[in-house]
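The protein record passed on for reference:
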Amino acid sequence: MRRLKRVLIVSSLLVVAPVLTSCGQQTQVDKSATSAKTSSVKQVSYYQRSLEKGLDAVARGKYVKAQAYFENAVDTKPKAKRARQYLAQVRALNQAQTAFDQQNYARAQTQLAQGQKATGSTALTTALDHLATRVKAKQASAIKASQAASSQSSEAAGSSTTAKSTSSSSKAVSPAEHQQANDLRRLLVSNQGFSASVLKGIPDADIIQAFAGSGNATNAALAESAGKLLQQYPNLK
């Protein structure tokens, strides 16, 4: 009888053991699924918060902070089109602003063109357009100022273009004309790739004279005036 009881107990354990093992495995699977689901929810939540904080920074004009938030959003969800568009816009805007502050208007225009290709935030599109207007205005202002200064210089120099160029080299310039010449030097370096060191050695009057009668303040006018100066000083490039 005792032997029979032991046999029944052992048999019962053999039946229960697989059931317990199966339950343990199912519990582990449930825990893994729950953990993965929780991680996914946290990821989406972080992505949304990053986007919201980035857009809030844009609304306050804090574009560097906005870029950091959008970078976090893209790192969280690399395939998210919306975040990538926002990041492309704000990154181009920040790089263009840096170039503008350095008076490198050609680079600023390149960065702005890249940012304007992206269609994400209306606020960022407006900011890009606004900066593009400022870049064009700066270029136009430099050319117009040089034209006005060269007009005054030409009246005192003579009627012949050659005589104007020759006399302008030795003519003393005012502080305002000196500033205009320096503005043009920076413009020629950024837009035409001229040597800054060679430009520094060219008389202010010659720099100003090259822009005399160049017409409208456009990129074409700048290129035409740069060509005149290059004929006088071939080592500019």
